[in-house]
């Protein structure tokens, strides 16, 4: 008969693998909800079930940890090379990694507050004055069926000549060229891709 410790160790390892799979499945389900519904639907989903946002964020972090490059780190490097006086709006800020990594004033917005820095709101209606920020950021946060409204909101809060930074998974777009053309129609000019 095998000693009890190895059996309980195998049991704990099996349980951990099963929990990881369940987290992955729930993350994929929530991710699908965020991409196929409007930002208003997403806000309602997480108002009704705030724990789902925490679960989503854990799944998101688990996914991003596997990537060779974290897009938020590229945005941090970009901002560190710019004046600290630039005011930034981080749409879908998550745990405020960007805000805690730069000297700039960063307005942090998300559907649920993972940090006291976060202002909870719908990304299509952020509580900022028109033309009040120099840089608007969507780092793996450009979600929802009402992207035109959300990007229009970013355009509203950006100062004339401001910068919109979008970091997104390429597979998110069926046609990158069509997305860039739509961005032009919203008043943006592509500087680099």
Task: Report the β-strand fraction as a percent range.
Answer: 15-25%
The CATH homologous superfamily of the largest domain corresponds to: Vaccinia Virus protein VP39
Number of helices: 7
Q: Report the average pLDDT across residues.
A: 90
Could you give a short account of the major beta sheet? 5 strands, parallel
Helix and strand run: HHHHEHEEEHEH
Using the coordinates shown, work out and report the CATH topology of the largest domain. Rossmann fold
Q: Give the beta-strand count.
A: 5
Shape: globular
Q: Which secondary-structure class do the elements indicate?
A: alpha/beta
Which CATH architecture of the largest domain is right? 3-Layer(aba) Sandwich
> Helix coverage percent of residues?
40-55%
Q: How big is the Rg?
A: 19 Å
SSE diagram, text form:
Elements: H1 4-36, H2 39-48, H3 50-65, H4 71-80, E1 87-91, H5 97-101, E2 105-110, E3 118-120, E4 133-139, H6 147-157, E5 158-167, H7 176-185
Parallel strand pairs: 1-2, 1-4, 2-3, 4-5
Helix pairs in contact: 1-3, 2-3
Descriptive report:
With 193 residues, the chain is α/β, with parallel strands linked by helices. The protein has two domains: 59 residues, Ribosomal RNA-processing protein 8, N-terminal domain (Arc Repressor Mutant, subunit A, Orthogonal Bundle), CATH 1.10.10.2150; 116 residues, Rossmann fold (3-Layer(aba) Sandwich). Helices cover 49% and strands 16% of the residues. The protein has seven helices and five strands; from the N terminus they run H-H-H-H-E-H-E-E-E-H-E-H. It has a five-stranded parallel β-sheet. Helix 6 links the parallel strand 4 and strand 5. The longest helix has 33 residues. The chain is globular, with a radius of gyration of 19 Å. The N and C termini lie far apart (62 Å).
């Amino acid at each position: 008969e095998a000693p009890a410790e190895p059996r309980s160790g195998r049991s704990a390892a099996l349980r951990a693998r099963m929990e990881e799979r369940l987290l992955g499945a729930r993350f994929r389900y929530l991710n699908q909800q965020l991409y196929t519904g409007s930002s208003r639907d997403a806000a309602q989903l997480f108002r009704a079930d705030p724990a789902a946002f925490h679960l989503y964020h854990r799944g998101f972090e688990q996914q991003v940890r596997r990537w060779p490059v974290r897009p938020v780190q590229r945005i941090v490097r970009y901002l560190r090379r710019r004046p600290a006086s630039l005011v930034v709006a981080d749409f879908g800020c998550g745990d405020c990694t960007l805000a805690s990594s730069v000297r700039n004033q960063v307005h942090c917005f998300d559907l649920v507050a993972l940090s006291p820095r976060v202002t909870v709101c719908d990304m299509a209606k952020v509580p900022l004055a028109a033309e009040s920020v120099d840089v608007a950021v969507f780092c793996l946060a450009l979600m929802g069926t009402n992207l035109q409204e959300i990007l229009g909101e970013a355009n509203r809060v950006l100062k004339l000549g401001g910068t919109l930074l979008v970091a997104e998974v390429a597979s998110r777009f069926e046609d990158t060229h069509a997305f860039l053309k739509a961005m032009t129609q919203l008043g943006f000019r592509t500087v680099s891709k």
